[in-house]
Specification:
about 240 residues; four-stranded mixed β-sheet; about 35% helix
Length: about 240
């Protein structure tokens, strides 16, 4: 049963019994494909090491004849597609975590977060929300794609932000916060777009003139915002 996501972000069901990708949705094994479609597998640019117990999930991305981009848990038959392999702690569309109740990290790296928030004029609650979404506050987190540390900085981004050692918590928080501040400035303070750009890249957000139609990125933005509000409330109390 395929679940389809149109470019405007809404799911389109072909059959009444189809299920959408929600936090409670468990992806199923794909059926064998017919023909010889071209296949390209890639990992998320931002991710988390497997010690969190998060199993990678496959989502198939392909384009229909009418141009509609589709994201499905079922392998398409006779069509070119990409396999998206999700590693990110907060971006799995099928996550069963209750993001409204997951324990928060309100005091971890307090000095480093406070300094970065002051230097780059960011709400410390937002920095904490991004750290939580990216690495669940694990400073040694390393993704298969090479993203490292608390805020999961890719090597190029780390270098651009002046980070010599992304596994150093202080450097990582400073570099990640600087990058987040740049994205907020680039997208005129729009939190949704800045978070989407942090996950999928600013060029992708510009390409789609909004949050890209990727289940990973859409889930990520939603959950960062949930965590942001929760951290704001927790830090204010």
């Amino acid at each position: 049963m395929n679940d389809q996501l149109s470019l405007n972000g809404s799911y389109v069901a072909e059959k009444p019994q189809q299920r959408t990708l929600t936090n409670d949705y468990q992806l199923t094994q794909s059926s064998a494909a017919l023909g010889k479609p071209k296949v390209k597998a890639r990992y998320s640019e931002n991710g988390i090491v497997s010690d969190l117990g998060v199993e990678k999930r496959k989502v198939y991305q392909y384009k229909q004849a009418n141009g509609v981009m589709v994201f499905s848990d079922q392998q398409p038959l006779g069509a070119d597609y990409q396999v998206l392999l999700y590693e990110c702690f907060a971006c799995r569309p099928d996550s069963t975590i209750d993001w409204y109740k997951i324990p928060l990290f309100t005091s971890h790296f307090a000095t480093d977060v406070a300094l970065a928030a002051h230097k780059y004029q960011l709400d410390p609650a937002l920095i904490r929300a991004v750290i939580h979404a990216e690495s669940a506050f694990k400073p040694g987190a390393v993704s298969k794609a090479g993203a490292k540390g608390l805020m999961q900085l890719m090597p190029g981004t780390a270098s651009d932000m002046g980070v010599d050692n992304p596994l150093n918590a202080q450097q990582n928080i400073r570099g990640g916060s600087r990058y987040l501040a740049q994205l907020l400035a680039q997208f005129n303070g729009d939190l949704d777009l800045a978070c989407a750009a942090y996950n999928a890249g600013p060029s992708t957000v510009t390409q789609y003139s909004g949050i890209p139609p990727y289940p990973e990125t859409q889930a990520y933005v939603k959950r960062v915002k949930i965590l942001f509000k929760r951290y704001q409330k927790a830090l204010a109390s």
